[in-house]
């Protein structure tokens, strides 16, 4: 076959690649040449649009601020009036509360006024930036045009060059194809010659055959064999001839194929030519588009140039265009003349406002100092009041003591008389001595009573208190009087200026066709709308800007000063009142009216009354009533199981604190589960009663939680009347609904102890994993729930004897009947709420296996009695009884407990626990509540953990391995550090390790180096450089930079993720985000290089950095409050501010200029690395070696019972199960190798364990 040579193919392909690369290079060059100016122009145009949008937003923000200021001014006036009324009526407590409210309102007013000033300056900057962008756009237009011309010329030259190269390449390829065609023709001629040669050979062969036939006719018989050979040779030659003919056909076919390829090549060449032409056309279209864009840009430039020229007509810079826009200039001059007087008055008003702002700033500083003095006086007054109250209490106590002693004297005298009558003089002598001592004590106490009474009646303390009160009232009056004088001055000056402005407006002509009085601004706007076709764009824009400016000034003046004055409106002269009315019309706002103020004050009084009712309910600990009054929407109940097995029993700290900083009504409860076998076992070991044991350990547990700053709303216990009543009520409802089954069960009985042994009194070998120290109710090694009779080789925990099995009657909860309802509840709750994965897996495994009868009674003395005749001596099983402690502890907290626990529509229940307690809270407890038929509040969100291991082993209190709640206080490390480490190391998805080395590193490298460094560095800097005063922010001298905007943006992104994480109960993730926000603060300080140089050389920039950092620190105090409350309170104390609620977003307006902060304090201290060995030796069990799990040492090497030996082939069931186990094991290994999601791996592992359990059960059956 004939085809193009590889060299020619590679040459052609290489040329095509070079052509494509050149085209791409040309396109890149074109895009690069046009991108610089064009992109700059597009960027400026985009920024101009953004600035216009920002201007609109800022204008809206100004109006909102004005409205809020109006509300606050009215609220402050009403509060001051109430304060004056309270002082006149001598209701000093109410006056003091009103003072606090006034200070809060005043603080908010100061904040809003600062924000308003910043917004006003931002508007001015926005307009300035728009002018600058317009100038830049005008400058870029000629540059873009020049670049377009250069680009057009360059593209034409490149196009000519490209066409020449294309023609040359096409001629060369045509020459190559012509040479190949000549070679094909030559091959054709060779084939024809070979065919002629074959034809001649065939004729000669026939002649030879004829000659041999005539010559050897006689020898025909002898030559038959030779003749046959010749025939075969002929046949062979014939076949060769046919082969040659076939080859000739093939050659002809190949020639046709080559010709076809030549045609295809020509067609491809033609198509490539067409593609080249298409590319050329595209290039022409692109050039045409660019030309169109150029023309469009020309038109835009002409338009912009026209606008610029129209704007600069007043300055006389474009004289050549004066004649073309004479009519437009006349309209502009008309507008300027029309509003000239108003603008002059507006400028005067703005100048006056700036002066008033300076006065207000000075007054704010003085007011802050006065406030500090007032706080000091209040503290002194409080101390004197407390002293007087203390003295009065002491007097009362002394009087009661004297009365008690006199009573004892009488009793002793009677006893003495009786002793004398019995002639027991020794006893009488004893009573005489006691009487002498008592009388001496009475004399001393009477002297002390007289002295104390004399101090109180002398009145020195009362005089000091009255003097301090007069000083306080005088200082408060001076502060109020200066404020009143300042605002009267502002009111007087502003009202006069506004009246002058409105007098000027009233001289303008009125609009036709309307009976409503309008100002000149209204008339100008109407005229501009009617004559819009004849006015140019610039005139219309100027009119709108003037209109907006006048309205803005009037609106601001009305809100800032129109309702501030304490002088009634009726006292103002008629012209001023008319002016104020016109201002209201122009600004399209609500006119000033006394009725409106009364309505506002009435609403404020209603809110204040409601708040007083709430506070009164809280003071009386009637929290249910307070919750009803508050009406905060969705309520939340939180509970924590009483026992957490591994490590420090620390709940996820602190869900209640997170709800508080989010201002959500929540109830956080916990308690000690005091019934059950564990209590009896410990009491027997200590030689005390069960009640004495519980009374001993309950305060110990409570103190540990309090030290760890876990502030439950109620930390209760289960040994209460409420527990008995609620538990027995649930039991009886289950009994009445036929959900309890009576049956007898084999139970272990110890003849030595003469008692049935409860689960916890029995130990033995686990039948599932062969663990030697399994308990009678649960195996700590594999986590299986057991019955005591299931144990292999059981032994009595009290005396070590082997118990025997006896029957005992018990009551069982029929979980099978309740499974459909319980499973339906689970599907809904786990979908709507947030459940940990291991909680779902464990619960699903119970449902998959099928719920069975569960015994809920025990043969014990210590527990809630079974309330049925004939069941004396039986109590409830602890895991039926213990979860009922949640509602019963709530019942000890409030009588309205059912509004929390029987209100599923309005209450959400969150629970936190270790994974070993999951089935009791997700299956048994919900089934018990569902079975009552009542509407209980069931679990909505479940947060479960894996195990926290100690070093390389397990925590074990009995062996002294690990540190526990009563040990942490001995270390000298504050609670915040413990809380941070345990929560950042919380085993949420898998087991985690408690390591002393890691504990020290987290404190030194994260808390100290990150959070502590950021807070301390900023506050110390403000103490040293600003004398603890927050600086004033000058936005003109130090506008917000990219660093400032980046910080706010990134902090808000992480704040949103933080809220989402804690809403989903991802506690460890929330803490990580909190520390990342702190790290952003450190990066911000590094980027801006806050130091003495910045303070000295760039003071305005330094002020902005300081204010931004202080506000970020204040935000961190709220973010960290759920995790480290004492640290959060320390930050707030250093900032001299209350612990704040968690805001929706981070803004730099919480800590405002002029605020005075306190001195810096260290949040954390460095821990010496040497402490690692000391603590490990002290809390690590035997010596300094890492703790080793003793239970693992005792465990036998075999993990399961040996498989039976089968004679012959294995049963089909065994083979099938072994095959499934092998396949499932391979699947698990693949998932682990691929590092799949932990949830997916856990699901497959559970399935594998289930198959192995089925195989073990099958072996057991076959062995029997």
Automatic annotation (TrEMBL):
Ligase keyword on record: yes
Reaction(s) catalysed (UniProt annotation): tRNA(Met) + L-methionine + ATP = L-methionyl-tRNA(Met) + AMP + diphosphate
Domain of life of the source: Eukaryota
UniProt KW keywords: Aminoacyl-tRNA synthetase, ATP-binding, Coiled coil, Cytoplasm, Ligase, Nucleotide-binding, Protein biosynthesis
Pfam families in UniProt: Anticodon_3, tRNA-synt_1g, WHEP-TRS
Subcellular location: Cytoplasm
GO molecular function: ATP binding; methionine-tRNA ligase activity
Sequence segments annotated as region (Disordered): 1183-1205
Signal peptide coordinates: none
Gene3D superfamilies for this protein: HUPs (3.40.50.620), Isoleucyl-tRNA Synthetase, Domain 1 (1.10.730.10), Methionyl-tRNA synthetase, Zn-domain (2.20.28.20), S15/NS1, RNA-binding (1.10.287.10)
Domain WHEP-TRS: 1213-1264
Coiled-coil annotated spans: 220-293, 367-485
GO cellular component, one term: aminoacyl-tRNA synthetase multienzyme complex
GO biological process: methionyl-tRNA aminoacylation
SMART domains: WHEP-TRS
PROSITE patterns with a match to the protein in the record: WHEP_TRS_2 (PS51185)
Main location: cytoplasm
EC code(s) of this entry: 6.1.1.10
Similarity field: Belongs to the class-I aminoacyl-tRNA synthetase family.
Protein name as catalogued: methionine--tRNA ligase
Record organism: Linnemannia schmuckeri
